[in-house]
Design a protein that fits this description.
This protein has helices spanning 2-24, 27-52, 60-73, 95-98, 100-123, 126-147. The N and C termini lie far apart (43 Å). Helix content is 75%, strand content 0%. It is mainly alpha-helical. It is elongated, with a radius of gyration of 16 Å. It has a single domain, classed as Up-down Bundle (Four Helix Bundle (Hemerythrin (Met), subunit A)), CATH 1.20.120.
Length: 150
């Protein structure tokens, strides 16, 4: 229990520090930062989707670990969608900066679904995991469809 609380405290400090640092990043560094965070999300959500689709064997421990990483990493990129990062090496559409309320709503929804995914994955129930992977995927897609260039 103490270990979990310590990890949560450190993660919280890192998140707050990262948010402040993002505000001071050069635009090209902010873009790299958010792309890196999304890469980590994708690398850990991929195996969960593979398990849900039956493409790879279900492994409850691996699912819980991947979901925990996704839950942490999905909190990281949002502050790096700062002014000045709408151009450059990015697939972000201009609509992000024009429709901030909708973008934030979709980001919040995704984070909520990922938090549920992490909880479900801890339970080890394949059917529950499969259902929540689907809901999480829908939240990802909703944002990508509107705010990300292919």
């Amino acid at each position: 229990m103490k270990h979990t609380m310590a990890v949560a405290a450190v993660a919280g400090c890192l998140f707050v520090g990262a948010s402040a640092a993002q505000a001071q990043m050069k635009p090209e560094d902010a873009i790299k930062y958010r792309k890196s965070a999304m890469f980590i999300v994708g690398q850990n959500f991929g195996p969960l989707a593979g398990m849900a689709q039956g493409k790879i064997p279900f492994d409850a421990a691996a699912a819980a670990r991947h979901a925990e990483i996704v839950d942490f990493a999905i909190k990281l990129p949002w502050g790096a969608f700062s002014p000045g990062t709408e151009t450059g090496d990015t697939k972000a559409k201009p609509e992000i900066w024009l429709e901030q309320e909708d973008f934030k709503g979709k980001a919040d929804k995704l984070q909520q679904e990922v938090a549920k995914l992490a909880q479900v994955a801890k339970g080890g129930d394949f059917n529950a995991l499969k259902a929540q992977v689907g809901e999480t995927g829908k939240a990802c897609k909703a944002c990508h469809d509107k705010f990300r260039n292919k």
